[in-house]
Specification:
By secondary structure, the protein is an alpha/beta fold. The protein is built from 14 helices and 24 strands. Helices cover 32% and strands 26% of the residues. Helix 1 packs parallel to helix 9, helix 3 runs antiparallel to helix 4 and helix 3 runs parallel beside helix 6. The longest helix has 25 residues.
């Protein structure tokens, strides 16, 4: 069987790449080692975590927010099995949908481990051990990432869990310790804190959310602390024992005396690493750097006919980044001009409130020697935020001092993940803060704070 393209992996990058290539007239097949499509994102990542985040937010709101709105109800009772069913129903609907879309676009699907034997040849090893070799003109590696391991801390998915295990807990832990103050750790820590767990976060660095704007991270940490999450920054975990609960050995990152931290459940959330095991990359001659596949500006590896996208290559490990790369490489293979603008890729932390960011941080602009102006506007001064009892947070707009072109936007707010996209569109078209400030926004909306922050770049905000 000969194909124009075989995509290995059907996460967001892989299945989108396959569908776009099929739309452009290519004969396409996909190889997926899971029984279901959708990769980590749909099966054990983005989608199930958002289902639990939403459900836990509703539980928390019913227990602590309704009374202030004049809604008197008995204290809510947690039905964790039903909540987990909601999560699984959400996952099932999404992965079934991906399978339908592949069939609709006439993409042939093979389930098993895909191994590159040589340029143009992919071996598929099914779960029962049977093998077949597929011929193709081009191969796209879209195998995503896996949980990064922490030396001295063995994940058993029972007491010491990864993000996968943290989505499957059968009861609310008395105390949950999260190792890592990145997006995954804060999101899942928030879920179980709302459902009743005492949550503590241990982070090697002296701040949370590495890579995000420092002012945003500092303010957000204060909000999470008010919610009851405790942070231990500048600390490293060097060992773990599971004899009686979990005992973690924790030391100052800069060196010093060790201490013991007890927990019922420990979540290891120190990041992810490219998933390249079993692909046969070394034998095929595909070059790697620090575990990631090296690609050029057209997503091509050093081996002709082999391409790579998503978490296995450089750039942020984000599903939507992988999707855009999947579309771009499909269009390139079809003779079109596929492209991804890496300066305009939003990032969101789906906690309460949410944190959303696009473009450069203040620290990045300072390091690059770029002069800029800052406009900020707090949600305490936004009418809709007051009505919704959602006044935590602010909008920050960073604009080039000479040209006024918007270089970065950072938002902490309820619904920040939805609000960030007007900034992304503006930046994609090279817009200025004045362009945004002079765009009429409906009143009353949370998004008015984005306009006011843009106005604040020139110190002409109205409502503050």
């Amino acid at each position: 069987m000969a194909y124009d393209l075989i995509v290995i992996g059907t996460g967001p990058g892989g299945y989108v790449c396959a569908i776009r290539a099929a739309q452009l007239g290519l004969k396409v097949a996909v190889v997926e080692k899971r029984k279901t499509h959708g990769g980590t994102c749909l099966n054990v990542g983005c989608i199930p975590s958002k289902a639990l985040l939403h459900a836990s937010e509703m539980f928390d709101e019913a227990g602590h927010g309704f009374a202030a709105l004049g809604i008197d109800v008995p204290a809510p009772k947690l039905n964790l099995p039903a909540m987990m069913k909601h999560k699984q129903d959400t996952v099932d609907a999404n992965v079934t949908g991906v399978g339908f879309l592949l069939k609709k676009n006439k993409v042939e699907a093979f389930h098993g481990l895909g191994t590159i034997l040589a340029p143009g040849k992919v071996q598929v090893t099914a779960a029962d051990g049977t093998q077949q070799v597929l011929d193709t003109k081009s191969i796209v590696i879209a195998t995503g990432s896996e949980v990064a391991q922490l030396p001295g801390v063995t994940i058993d998915e029972k007491q010491i869990v990864s993000s996968t295990g943290a989505l499957e807990l059968e009861k609310v832990p008395g105390k949950l310790v999260v190792i890592g103050a990145g997006v995954i750790g804060l999101e899942l820590g928030s879920v179980w804190r709302r459902l009743g767990a005492k949550v503590e976060v241990i982070e090697y660095l002296d701040r949370i959310l590495p890579g995000m704007d420092a002012e945003v991270a500092k303010q957000f940490q204060r909000m999470l602390e008010k919610q009851g999450i405790t942070f231990h920054l500048g600390k490293k975990v060097t060992g773990a024992s599971t004899e009686a609960g979990v005992s973690l050995t924790v030391e100052p990152a800069a060196g010093g005396a060790a201490e013991t931290v007890q927990a019922d459940i420990v979540l290891v959330a120190i990041g992810r690493r490219p998933n390249t095991e079993g692909l046969g990359l070394e034998a095929a001659g595909v070059a790697l750097e620090r575990g990631r596949v090296i690609i050029n500006d057209h997503f091509a590896t050093n081996v002709p006919g082999i391409y790579a996208i998503g978490d296995v290559v450089r750039g942020p490990m984000l599903a939507h980044k992988a999707e855009d790369e999947g579309v771009a490489v499909a269009e390139i293979l079809a003779g079109k001009a596929g492209h991804v603008n890496y300066d305009v890729i939003p990032g969101v932390v789906y906690t309460w409130p949410e944190v959303a960011t696009v473009g450069k941080t203040e620290e990045e602009l300072k390091a690059a020697g770029i002069a800029y102006n800052v406009g900020k506007f707090p949600f305490t001064a936004n009418g809709r935020a007051r009505a919704n009892r959602a006044t935590d947070g602010f909008v920050k707009v960073l604009a080039d001092k000479a040209t006024d072109r918007v270089l970065g936007v950072h938002i902490i707010a309820a619904g920040a993940g939805e609000m960030i996209h007007e900034a992304a569109v503006l930046m994609e078209f090279g817009g200025s803060s004045e362009d945004l400030a002079r765009t009429c926004h409906a009143h009353p909306t949370m998004s008015e704070a984005v306009k006011e922050a843009a106005m604040a770049v020139e110190k002409r905000q109205i409502h503050l």
